[in-house]
Design a protein that fits this description.
With 227 residues, the protein is mainly alpha-helical. The protein is built from eight helices and no strands.
């Protein structure tokens, strides 16, 4: 490898690390619950409650669990590169998300049902990823980004809780979300955490699962047909 190739490689790795951190599965719930609360709530107290619950059970507690596991050498890093060491983090993460779902059910939030659906989508997608992981290492980064992209797009419509109608603006928005997803997938491959098949499978699976769940779990929402 020449000096120029080495410099290019180092720059690519640094960029990939930044992308992996910014779009980490532990950070994306902040975007989802934050955007959802702004779109659905008008009361600042309700917005604060939604984001507090989302942050606590989908970000903070899972991060603390992974940090403790890393300190106890049960995992080598928070990214959990080894497939066989992912099982317990999946279980702990699902338990935390389950408590988050119950929190949204317990507290009086105007659109609590919608936030519970968001929790269920995350729980279902993570459960499927956990079962796949028993035999094959699928990309959680890619699945989380695919899930987030679909939810953000769904919530971006001019009519709340309805798939946006096809338009040039929405086509541009979809293109931006796809580019971000591909960036995350490319970063994971560059960092050698996953193969191309693992990141592509994670992205496609999460998009399909999330579209179906939004369409069936949220009342009066149909599967999107862009005509």
């Amino acid at each position: 490898m020449t000096d120029n190739e080495l410099i290019h490689r180092n720059r690519s790795v640094r960029a990939a690390r930044i992308i992996s951190v910014v779009f980490n599965p532990l950070l994306l719930p902040i975007l989802v619950f934050g955007y959802a609360s702004i779109r659905l709530e008008s009361d600042p107290v309700q917005i604060l409650m939604v984001n507090t619950i989302g942050f606590l059970f989908f970000v903070l507690i899972p991060f603390i669990i992974l940090t403790v596991m890393k300190r106890n050498r049960r995992i080598s890093s928070i990214d959990i590169k080894e497939r066989t060491t992912r099982n317990m983090p999946f279980i702990y993460g699902l338990l935390s998300m389950g408590f988050g779902l119950m929190a949204f059910q317990f507290f009086s939030i105007t659109n609590g049902l919608i936030y519970m659906v968001l929790c269920m989508i995350s729980i279902n997608n993570t459960t499927i990823a956990a079962f796949i992981n028993l035999k094959w290492k699928i990309s959680v980064h890619s699945m989380a980004m695919g899930t987030t992209a679909v939810l953000i797009y769904f919530l971006s419509g001019s009519i709340v809780l309805s798939w946006p109608p096809f338009s040039m603006n929405h086509l541009i928005f979809i293109s931006i979300l796809v580019i971000l997803l591909v960036m995350v997938q490319t970063a994971r491959v560059i960092l050698q955490f996953h193969t191309q098949a693992q990141v592509i499978s994670g992205g496609l699976l999460s998009i399909i699962l999330t579209v179906l769940q939004v369409s069936f779990l949220i009342p009066e929402v149909d599967i999107p047909i862009f005509v």
